Amino acid sequence: MQGIIHSGERKSRCKRGVTLVEVIVVLAVVGLLLALLVPAIQSSRNAARRIQCANHLRQLGLAIVNYHDAYSSLPLSDSWSVGNGCPGESLISRLFPYLGINNLCDLMRSDVTTLPLLICPADGEGQATPCLLSYVVNSSPGRGSGSLAHPPFEDRLVTTMSDITDGLSNTAAFSEGLGTRGDGSPTEASRTPLRYPWMVVVASLSEETLAHPLWPASLAERTAQTEHSIDDCNHGSRAFISIPRPAEVARWRNDQFSEGTWTYSHWLPPNSAYCYPTGRQEIDNNLFLDNSRRCASDHLGGVNVVFFDGRVQFINDRIDRVPWRAWGTRDGNEPAGDLP
Fold it and tell me: Which terminal residue of the chain has fewer beta carbons within 10 Å of its beta carbon, N or C?
């Protein structure tokens, strides 16, 4: 009969719309996935930059070995003009032939201003700096202080691998430096790490409250004095900031190289606050500035360091001061301890 409708012959084809609750749930799930994924991607990128930076340092360490094989000495750390309108040579530029880089004079004539091998990819702000040098040379933990002032590289004294009696695995060769200076505004003082030194007025300039680069001689005493300096820079001095020091950007090419622009000291630990005290005699101020120039990076929590045995190690900002200083000397006979 036509009037009979079989229940199996008609199926419901009604389509139900998506409810607001379902949309919210989907968006919440997507947001949660993004919240988990984005930090993981960023962390992966940071790790890749750190590894690439370590590879650059490893090549610098190998270049030192090849230079020593060729000349039976380590490169001098001073600089001088090579004439013919060429800029002054430096320790870094003397390694160019062993890094697959043209000599400094050819680079200048070609108007080359970027050498990727000498730039840490993590230093985003430094990318725009002409001739940026992200890797700086160990200049010991205390210039002008007797046995503490024996760095592996000397400016007027030829040194060799055999002069590194503390051991190649216990002596740092290169670390990292941040290439971009601040803009001079007060907000620069709160940056971590500081990118270049602030001229500060410290409440008390006595040796008891501000570490002096010329004394004391022992590492243990120097460590105690360093704590005073870090406190002055981190706390008391910040209220007395007057003006920033002139820029000391590390470069691989310059009209007149200055040793301080491409060296670092093992006096302060990595990424420490970096201050310049006023009120002392000029010679004391200069030594203080040289000794307080620390290595620094935009890696989270530390810096890469290459040792003379070619090993690259990531050193934590909170490294103990005594072994950190020991790794800065070539013949201090200090107990360097184990790497973290």
Answer: N
